[in-house]
Amino acid sequence: AKRAGKAQWRRYQPSLHTPMLQQQQLRADLEQAIADEEFTLHFQPLVELGSGITLGMEALVRWQHPQRGMVPPDQFIPLAEETGLIVPLGLWVLEQGLAAAVTWRDLRPERPPYVSVNVSARQFRTTGFADEVMERLTAAGLPPSGLLLEITESMLLRDDEQAWTHLATLREHGIRVAIDDFGTGYSSLSYLRQVSVDVVKIDKSFVDGLGNENPHQNALVEGIVKLAQTLDLGVVAEGIEEPGDHAALHAMGCPYGQGYLFSRPLPGEDAERWFRENRAA
Ligand code: C2E
Ligand code: CA
Ligand code: CA
Ligand code: CA
Protein backbone atom coordinates (compact mmCIF):
# COMPACT_ATOMS: atom_id res chain seq x y z
CA ALA A 1 0.00 0.00 0.00
CA LYS A 2 2.87 2.27 0.92
CA ARG A 3 4.51 1.62 -2.37
CA ALA A 4 1.42 2.30 -4.36
CA GLY A 5 0.98 5.52 -2.45
CA LYS A 6 4.50 6.56 -3.23
CA ALA A 7 4.19 5.72 -6.86
CA GLN A 8 1.00 7.71 -7.05
CA TRP A 9 2.61 10.64 -5.35
CA ARG A 10 5.48 10.54 -7.77
CA ARG A 11 3.17 10.31 -10.72
CA TYR A 12 0.78 13.05 -9.72
CA GLN A 13 2.98 15.56 -8.06
CA PRO A 14 4.76 17.06 -11.05
CA SER A 15 1.61 17.42 -13.12
CA LEU A 16 -0.20 19.10 -10.25
CA HIS A 17 2.67 21.28 -9.25
CA THR A 18 3.34 22.95 -12.57
CA PRO A 19 -0.19 24.11 -13.39
CA MET A 20 -0.59 25.45 -9.86
CA LEU A 21 2.48 27.60 -10.15
CA GLN A 22 1.35 28.67 -13.57
CA GLN A 23 -2.07 29.56 -12.19
CA GLN A 24 -0.56 31.72 -9.50
CA GLN A 25 1.63 33.43 -12.03
CA LEU A 26 -1.29 33.92 -14.38
CA ARG A 27 -3.32 35.42 -11.58
CA ALA A 28 -0.59 37.95 -10.79
CA ASP A 29 -0.20 38.73 -14.48
CA LEU A 30 -3.93 39.22 -14.86
CA GLU A 31 -3.97 41.97 -12.30
CA GLN A 32 -1.12 43.71 -14.09
CA ALA A 33 -2.74 43.16 -17.47
CA ILE A 34 -5.73 45.28 -16.54
CA ALA A 35 -3.45 48.11 -15.53
CA ASP A 36 -1.30 47.69 -18.65
CA GLU A 37 -4.30 47.33 -20.98
CA GLU A 38 -3.15 44.11 -22.58
CA PHE A 39 -6.70 43.16 -23.56
CA THR A 40 -8.32 43.52 -26.91
CA LEU A 41 -11.73 42.65 -28.32
CA HIS A 42 -12.53 40.53 -31.34
CA PHE A 43 -15.98 40.58 -32.89
CA GLN A 44 -17.98 37.74 -34.39
CA PRO A 45 -20.90 38.45 -36.75
CA LEU A 46 -24.45 37.39 -35.83
CA VAL A 47 -26.24 36.60 -39.06
CA GLU A 48 -29.85 36.43 -40.18
CA LEU A 49 -29.88 32.99 -41.77
CA GLY A 50 -32.50 33.75 -44.42
CA SER A 51 -30.95 36.93 -45.80
CA GLY A 52 -27.32 36.57 -44.78
CA ILE A 53 -27.43 40.06 -43.21
CA THR A 54 -25.17 40.67 -40.22
CA LEU A 55 -27.38 42.15 -37.52
CA GLY A 56 -24.72 42.64 -34.90
CA MET A 57 -21.45 41.30 -33.52
CA GLU A 58 -20.51 39.50 -30.33
CA ALA A 59 -17.57 40.97 -28.43
CA LEU A 60 -15.03 38.32 -27.37
CA VAL A 61 -12.15 39.36 -25.18
CA ARG A 62 -8.52 38.42 -25.96
CA TRP A 63 -5.48 38.73 -23.76
CA GLN A 64 -2.26 39.58 -25.52
CA HIS A 65 0.24 38.43 -22.91
CA PRO A 66 3.73 39.95 -23.36
CA GLN A 67 5.43 36.55 -22.93
CA ARG A 68 2.78 33.91 -23.52
CA GLY A 69 1.17 35.44 -26.57
CA MET A 70 -2.57 35.17 -27.00
CA VAL A 71 -4.19 33.62 -23.92
CA PRO A 72 -7.68 32.27 -24.76
CA PRO A 73 -10.59 33.48 -22.60
CA ASP A 74 -11.36 29.99 -21.32
CA GLN A 75 -8.00 30.20 -19.52
CA PHE A 76 -8.41 33.54 -17.82
CA ILE A 77 -12.15 34.30 -17.50
CA PRO A 78 -12.65 31.72 -14.73
CA LEU A 79 -9.63 33.15 -12.93
CA ALA A 80 -10.92 36.68 -13.38
CA GLU A 81 -14.24 35.55 -11.91
CA GLU A 82 -12.57 33.96 -8.90
CA THR A 83 -10.49 37.01 -8.12
CA GLY A 84 -13.24 39.53 -8.85
CA LEU A 85 -11.12 41.09 -11.59
CA ILE A 86 -13.95 40.26 -13.96
CA VAL A 87 -15.81 43.31 -12.64
CA PRO A 88 -13.35 45.95 -13.94
CA LEU A 89 -12.51 43.79 -16.96
CA GLY A 90 -16.21 43.38 -17.76
CA LEU A 91 -16.77 47.12 -17.65
CA TRP A 92 -13.82 47.62 -19.95
CA VAL A 93 -15.32 45.08 -22.40
CA LEU A 94 -18.67 46.87 -22.21
CA GLU A 95 -17.15 50.29 -22.90
CA GLN A 96 -15.03 49.05 -25.79
CA GLY A 97 -17.93 47.08 -27.22
CA LEU A 98 -20.22 50.10 -27.09
CA ALA A 99 -17.57 52.25 -28.75
CA ALA A 100 -17.30 49.71 -31.57
CA ALA A 101 -21.10 49.68 -32.01
CA VAL A 102 -21.08 53.48 -32.34
CA THR A 103 -18.60 53.16 -35.22
CA TRP A 104 -20.59 50.40 -36.96
CA ARG A 105 -23.77 52.44 -36.77
CA ASP A 106 -22.06 55.28 -38.59
CA LEU A 107 -20.93 52.81 -41.24
CA ARG A 108 -24.40 51.32 -41.70
CA PRO A 109 -26.98 53.78 -40.38
CA GLU A 110 -29.82 52.33 -42.45
CA ARG A 111 -29.71 49.17 -40.37
CA PRO A 112 -27.77 49.97 -37.19
CA PRO A 113 -25.82 46.96 -35.91
CA TYR A 114 -25.74 46.09 -32.21
CA VAL A 115 -22.99 44.72 -30.00
CA SER A 116 -23.52 41.59 -27.93
CA VAL A 117 -21.53 41.51 -24.68
CA ASN A 118 -20.91 38.49 -22.42
CA VAL A 119 -21.61 39.12 -18.77
CA SER A 120 -20.45 36.81 -16.01
CA ALA A 121 -22.46 35.85 -12.94
CA ARG A 122 -20.10 37.75 -10.72
CA GLN A 123 -20.82 41.02 -12.54
CA PHE A 124 -24.54 40.42 -12.37
CA ARG A 125 -24.30 40.06 -8.60
CA THR A 126 -22.47 43.37 -8.19
CA THR A 127 -24.46 46.15 -6.60
CA GLY A 128 -25.31 48.84 -9.11
CA PHE A 129 -24.56 46.72 -12.17
CA ALA A 130 -27.70 47.68 -14.08
CA ASP A 131 -27.07 51.38 -13.38
CA GLU A 132 -23.48 51.10 -14.56
CA VAL A 133 -24.61 49.54 -17.82
CA MET A 134 -27.19 52.28 -18.38
CA GLU A 135 -24.60 54.95 -17.61
CA ARG A 136 -22.17 53.56 -20.15
CA LEU A 137 -24.88 53.23 -22.76
CA THR A 138 -25.95 56.83 -22.29
CA ALA A 139 -22.35 58.06 -22.28
CA ALA A 140 -21.75 56.25 -25.58
CA GLY A 141 -24.87 57.85 -27.03
CA LEU A 142 -26.41 54.53 -28.02
CA PRO A 143 -30.08 53.57 -27.80
CA PRO A 144 -30.84 50.39 -25.78
CA SER A 145 -31.30 48.48 -29.05
CA GLY A 146 -27.56 48.93 -29.64
CA LEU A 147 -26.69 46.51 -26.86
CA LEU A 148 -27.46 42.88 -26.12
CA LEU A 149 -26.21 41.14 -22.99
CA GLU A 150 -25.39 37.43 -22.90
CA ILE A 151 -25.79 35.58 -19.63
CA THR A 152 -25.67 31.89 -18.84
CA GLU A 153 -28.60 29.91 -17.57
CA SER A 154 -26.79 28.81 -14.42
CA MET A 155 -26.70 32.43 -13.37
CA LEU A 156 -30.45 32.62 -13.03
CA LEU A 157 -30.90 29.20 -11.53
CA ARG A 158 -29.26 30.50 -8.40
CA ASP A 159 -31.60 31.98 -5.94
CA ASP A 160 -30.11 35.38 -6.35
CA GLU A 161 -32.37 38.35 -5.77
CA GLN A 162 -29.74 40.83 -6.97
CA ALA A 163 -29.25 39.16 -10.35
CA TRP A 164 -32.99 38.92 -10.98
CA THR A 165 -33.45 42.58 -10.11
CA HIS A 166 -30.65 43.63 -12.47
CA LEU A 167 -32.18 41.51 -15.22
CA ALA A 168 -35.61 43.11 -14.77
CA THR A 169 -34.19 46.64 -14.60
CA LEU A 170 -32.10 46.25 -17.75
CA ARG A 171 -35.01 44.81 -19.70
CA GLU A 172 -37.32 47.59 -18.50
CA HIS A 173 -34.84 50.00 -20.03
CA GLY A 174 -35.11 48.14 -23.31
CA ILE A 175 -31.82 46.27 -23.26
CA ARG A 176 -32.17 42.80 -24.70
CA VAL A 177 -30.78 39.81 -22.86
CA ALA A 178 -29.79 36.43 -24.29
CA ILE A 179 -29.28 33.10 -22.58
CA ASP A 180 -25.93 31.81 -23.77
CA ASP A 181 -24.89 28.17 -24.21
CA PHE A 182 -28.50 27.08 -23.92
CA GLY A 183 -28.90 23.37 -23.32
CA THR A 184 -25.62 22.81 -21.51
CA GLY A 185 -26.86 23.66 -18.02
CA TYR A 186 -29.27 21.89 -15.76
CA SER A 187 -32.39 23.66 -16.89
CA SER A 188 -35.10 22.03 -18.93
CA LEU A 189 -37.00 23.52 -21.81
CA SER A 190 -39.76 24.60 -19.44
CA TYR A 191 -37.23 26.92 -17.84
CA LEU A 192 -37.69 29.19 -20.84
CA ARG A 193 -41.23 29.89 -19.73
CA GLN A 194 -40.12 31.17 -16.34
CA VAL A 195 -37.25 33.48 -17.15
CA SER A 196 -37.88 36.65 -19.03
CA VAL A 197 -35.19 37.04 -21.63
CA ASP A 198 -35.29 38.01 -25.28
CA VAL A 199 -32.99 35.60 -27.06
CA VAL A 200 -31.84 32.00 -26.69
CA LYS A 201 -28.44 30.98 -28.02
CA ILE A 202 -28.35 27.25 -28.74
CA ASP A 203 -24.98 25.87 -27.70
CA LYS A 204 -22.64 24.78 -30.46
CA SER A 205 -22.49 21.22 -29.16
CA PHE A 206 -26.08 20.79 -30.42
CA VAL A 207 -25.38 22.45 -33.73
CA ASP A 208 -22.25 20.49 -34.62
CA GLY A 209 -23.25 17.69 -36.98
CA LEU A 210 -26.83 18.80 -37.66
CA GLY A 211 -26.14 18.39 -41.35
CA ASN A 212 -25.61 14.65 -40.82
CA GLU A 213 -29.33 14.33 -40.11
CA ASN A 214 -29.16 12.42 -36.88
CA PRO A 215 -32.92 12.26 -36.21
CA HIS A 216 -32.63 12.66 -32.42
CA GLN A 217 -30.31 15.61 -32.56
CA ASN A 218 -32.37 17.34 -35.23
CA ALA A 219 -35.60 16.77 -33.31
CA LEU A 220 -34.05 18.22 -30.17
CA VAL A 221 -32.78 21.37 -31.85
CA GLU A 222 -36.00 21.81 -33.77
CA GLY A 223 -37.86 21.48 -30.47
CA ILE A 224 -35.81 24.29 -28.92
CA VAL A 225 -36.32 26.49 -31.99
CA LYS A 226 -40.08 25.91 -32.06
CA LEU A 227 -40.56 26.42 -28.35
CA ALA A 228 -38.49 29.60 -28.33
CA GLN A 229 -40.57 30.95 -31.19
CA THR A 230 -43.81 30.04 -29.45
CA LEU A 231 -42.54 32.07 -26.52
CA ASP A 232 -41.64 34.98 -28.82
CA LEU A 233 -37.92 34.64 -28.23
CA GLY A 234 -35.20 35.16 -30.78
CA VAL A 235 -33.09 32.07 -31.46
CA VAL A 236 -29.44 32.06 -32.42
CA ALA A 237 -27.62 28.85 -33.30
CA GLU A 238 -23.96 29.01 -32.28
CA GLY A 239 -20.99 27.28 -33.85
CA ILE A 240 -22.26 26.83 -37.42
CA GLU A 241 -19.25 25.47 -39.28
CA GLU A 242 -20.68 23.43 -42.14
CA PRO A 243 -23.03 24.42 -44.96
CA GLY A 244 -25.07 21.32 -44.04
CA ASP A 245 -25.59 22.58 -40.47
CA HIS A 246 -26.67 25.93 -41.88
CA ALA A 247 -29.13 24.30 -44.28
CA ALA A 248 -30.61 22.08 -41.57
CA LEU A 249 -31.09 25.06 -39.24
CA HIS A 250 -32.64 27.15 -41.95
CA ALA A 251 -34.99 24.30 -42.86
CA MET A 252 -36.19 23.97 -39.26
CA GLY A 253 -36.92 27.70 -39.12
CA CYS A 254 -34.03 28.89 -36.98
CA PRO A 255 -33.83 32.62 -37.74
CA TYR A 256 -30.29 33.56 -36.63
CA GLY A 257 -26.85 32.02 -36.46
CA GLN A 258 -23.21 32.50 -35.76
CA GLY A 259 -20.14 30.46 -36.59
CA TYR A 260 -16.94 29.99 -38.53
CA LEU A 261 -18.99 29.33 -41.68
CA PHE A 262 -19.85 33.04 -41.74
CA SER A 263 -16.82 34.39 -39.95
CA ARG A 264 -14.36 33.80 -37.17
CA PRO A 265 -14.14 36.50 -34.53
CA LEU A 266 -12.53 39.52 -36.21
CA PRO A 267 -10.10 42.16 -34.92
CA GLY A 268 -11.73 45.60 -34.62
CA GLU A 269 -10.52 46.90 -37.97
CA ASP A 270 -11.75 43.84 -39.83
CA ALA A 271 -15.13 44.12 -38.12
CA GLU A 272 -15.40 47.67 -39.40
CA ARG A 273 -14.43 46.53 -42.88
CA TRP A 274 -17.10 43.84 -42.62
CA PHE A 275 -19.78 46.49 -42.25
CA ARG A 276 -18.24 48.69 -44.89
CA GLU A 277 -18.27 45.94 -47.47
CA ASN A 278 -21.22 44.64 -49.35
CA ARG A 279 -21.54 41.19 -47.78
CA ALA A 280 -22.70 42.82 -44.54
CA ALA A 281 -25.52 44.74 -46.22
P1 C2E B 1 -19.12 31.95 -25.82
O1 C2E B 1 -19.74 33.19 -25.28
O2 C2E B 1 -20.00 30.76 -25.97
O3 C2E B 1 -18.48 32.38 -27.21
C1 C2E B 1 -18.43 31.53 -28.33
C2 C2E B 1 -17.08 30.87 -28.46
O4 C2E B 1 -17.12 29.94 -29.54
C3 C2E B 1 -15.96 31.85 -28.80
O5 C2E B 1 -14.76 31.35 -28.22
C4 C2E B 1 -15.91 31.75 -30.33
O6 C2E B 1 -14.67 32.12 -30.87
C5 C2E B 1 -16.17 30.28 -30.52
N1 C2E B 1 -16.80 30.00 -31.83
C6 C2E B 1 -17.53 30.81 -32.60
N2 C2E B 1 -17.94 30.20 -33.72
C7 C2E B 1 -17.45 28.95 -33.66
C8 C2E B 1 -17.53 27.80 -34.55
O7 C2E B 1 -18.13 27.82 -35.60
N3 C2E B 1 -16.91 26.67 -34.12
C9 C2E B 1 -16.22 26.62 -32.95
N4 C2E B 1 -15.64 25.46 -32.63
N5 C2E B 1 -16.12 27.67 -32.09
C10 C2E B 1 -16.73 28.82 -32.46
P2 C2E B 1 -13.80 32.27 -27.39
O8 C2E B 1 -13.67 33.62 -28.05
O9 C2E B 1 -12.55 31.49 -27.16
O10 C2E B 1 -14.55 32.49 -26.02
C11 C2E B 1 -14.77 31.43 -25.14
C12 C2E B 1 -15.68 31.83 -24.02
O11 C2E B 1 -15.07 32.80 -23.17
C13 C2E B 1 -16.96 32.49 -24.47
O12 C2E B 1 -17.88 31.50 -24.91
C14 C2E B 1 -17.40 33.18 -23.21
O13 C2E B 1 -18.04 32.28 -22.35
C15 C2E B 1 -16.07 33.60 -22.63
N6 C2E B 1 -15.84 35.01 -22.93
C16 C2E B 1 -15.27 35.58 -24.01
N7 C2E B 1 -15.25 36.93 -23.92
C17 C2E B 1 -15.83 37.23 -22.73
C18 C2E B 1 -16.12 38.45 -22.05
O14 C2E B 1 -15.85 39.57 -22.51
N8 C2E B 1 -16.72 38.35 -20.81
C19 C2E B 1 -17.06 37.14 -20.28
N9 C2E B 1 -17.66 37.12 -19.07
N10 C2E B 1 -16.83 35.99 -20.91
C20 C2E B 1 -16.22 36.02 -22.11
CA1 CA C 1 -21.51 34.31 -25.72
CA1 CA D 1 -22.11 30.50 -26.25
CA1 CA E 1 -19.26 29.32 -23.70
UniProtKB/TrEMBL annotation:
<feature type="domain" description="EAL">
    <location>
        <begin position="23"/>
        <end position="279"/>
    </location>
</feature>
<protein>
    <submittedName>
        <fullName>Uncharacterized protein</fullName>
    </submittedName>
</protein>
